[in-house]
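User: Type II secretion system protein, Undibacterium terreum:
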Amino acid sequence: MLCFSPFRRARTTFIIAIALAIAGCAAQTHHRTGMLAMERDDYVEGVNELRKAADLAPQDVEYRKDWLQQRETATAKLLAKADKALSEGHDSEAGQYFQIILKFDRENERAKRGNDIIVRNARAAEAAAEARKAVKEGNITQATQWVARALEGKPEQAEALAVKQEIEALQAKNLLTVPSFSALYKKPINLEFRDASLKMVFEALSRTTGINFIFDREVKSDQRTTIFLKQTTLEDAIDVILTTNQLDKKILNASSVLIYPNNPNKNKEYQDLVVKAFYLSNVEAKQAANMLKTVLKTKDIYVDDKVNMLVLRENPETIELAERLIALQDMDEPEVMLEVEVLEINRSRLMNLGVQFTNQFTIAPLGAQNSSGSGTGTGTGTAGSTTLPTYKLSDLKNLNSDLLGITVPTATINLQKTDGDANLLANPRLRVRDKEKAKIMIGDKVPVVTTTSTPNGFVAENIQYLDVGLKLEVEPNIHLHDEIGLKIALEVSSLVSTVKTSSGSQAYQIGTRNFTSALRLKDGETQVLAGLISDESRSAANGIPLLGDLPVLGRLFSSQNDNRQKTEIVMSITPHLIRNIRRKDPSSEAFWSGTESSLRTKPLQLRMLDGAVANQPNGVKQGANAPAAGLPVGAAAPAQGQAAAPDTSNITFQWKGPVQAKVGETITLELSMDSQNLLRAAPLQLQVDPAQFEIVSVKEGNYFTKNGKGSFNHVIDKPSGRVSVGASNAEGAKGAGQLLSVELKPLAPNPEAAVNILSMTPVGTGQAIGRPNMPVVYKIAVAP
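Assistant: Predicted structure for Type II secretion system protein:
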């Protein structure tokens, strides 16, 4: 059995007490440090210090409460900041907040999920970047896969959604793009057929172009035609043949075309229809549908008023025309801000000056008044009725001053002068759309009670309200050139007096002034409308006859009341145009729409290809076994069996530049000229395919500037791919030298992209110089 001495037990107790005291002091220190850290928003140190205080003093409930409460407060603040950073796309900033939370609360699930979201967002951003890169490279399939991966990680990823929209637009464009003959065959052709069958014509075209023509069974095999065309496009030639023979076509692929009769039944069978939805922003769907029915004679139109949408099912040409018409009609509505100032000025002047006497007095025998009401008072009249006794004439003989009574007249001194000025100012700013009314009312609604009674004694009251005050109605009509037409209706009314009817109801006398006008102002122009003046003067006098008419002294025996009231209304209005009508380009306001029976986006025409020689016999002729294709644009070759014409100009050209290029990389070509004759000018034309090259710039060479007196000008027509150059020197130049340099940007890959000199007309100093053989072609292999 172990025994502890009292001294040993006391020492143990003392040590435990000392330890508890030290722990309590340490907990207090940690608690104080933690609270100070929380005040300066040092959440990590603050929460950790408070946790240490709670651990050192587990029996102290306040320490534990402060720790848990401050931890929740810090977590809520940091999570709010992190969520805001995530919504704004600042993922790195949000990640810092989540990391701070995990430093003092390692098991916080929201912080862990936030970190996972940031990781997924980063992966989604990388996938979206890869998708964008794939779209630029033309790999739509791979781009679609990257977009799906990005949206799987973050469905609202902005870049991925933008790429997805671009991909869908490209796919829709490719799906709805109708192939044309200009893409199938680009060379010009000649046709010479007299009373030949249609199938013979198309067989010859098939051998020349390599395009297969498939005929519907109802196309007549013995149908004959006569046609002579030179140096035109295949598309125009076939359109003329089909239109003149009541036929139509459908391009099946790059080498096959279907020919069928142009009648309603076959059009329903072969003509493909497109469904197009139009979401309208400004014009009502019903109005747009009526326009399409009127102009394009469309039938299958569905209108949804709820979302302001219309759906159209027609052929691609009609759909394209409908898009152009709706684009012209669905424009932003004009709006205007009207700054109105209405000022009503009331001036009143009242002068009431003088002595006002009673206008009557009464003399009567004493004791004669036996009034059933009130007496005469001041002599102004009786409020009741008075009955006087009757006397005999003999009784009047005894009347004297002791038996007569008289009412003493009274006098009132009027000393009154009143001056009043009142201004009513209204300064509203009204924003209103074109041809919409804007109304404003500043004033009161005065109740008017109407009582209705029935024969059986039932009484009903009906209350109606009248607007009394300032009422303004403005209707703008916005014109082009920033002019605004305004229809203005202004009414200013006031309550003049109240009248009681015989039945006890109240009626009101209302004074009204109206103003109506139509104006046309420019943007920011102020128009002041004034002149609504009401000037009323009243003068009344009350005095003793004759005495009141005396000059100066008459004021002592009379009272003068002069009252004058003047009211004027002034209004100014200033329109400020917020948005006007934005007209489309003139080119989009007029476009071809085909014929009455057939809608087309371009007219039936025969186009001559640039650079083609019209009198050359190359082409398709009747009876030719192997018809030759027409010459390509920009080519010049002698007819079969003929020799090239000799070059008598003694002028040669030479291109210098890269033979290979990449799409998007700018290249520079130099054109040199060598002439044995003295030339004063060398006007020429350059030609490139606008779909192949973009002409960036043209710069002058040193051929005509050797003596510093040359001139150089040029005109670039980018849509047609042409450059017209004029280089000259009055003193002339000869020999070899650089004529010009042209900077080009390849747009599409092509192993044989060509740059041509179409024409050049040399101008000598005194003798005629022949034209050099054209064209001069320089070919470049353009890689993707």
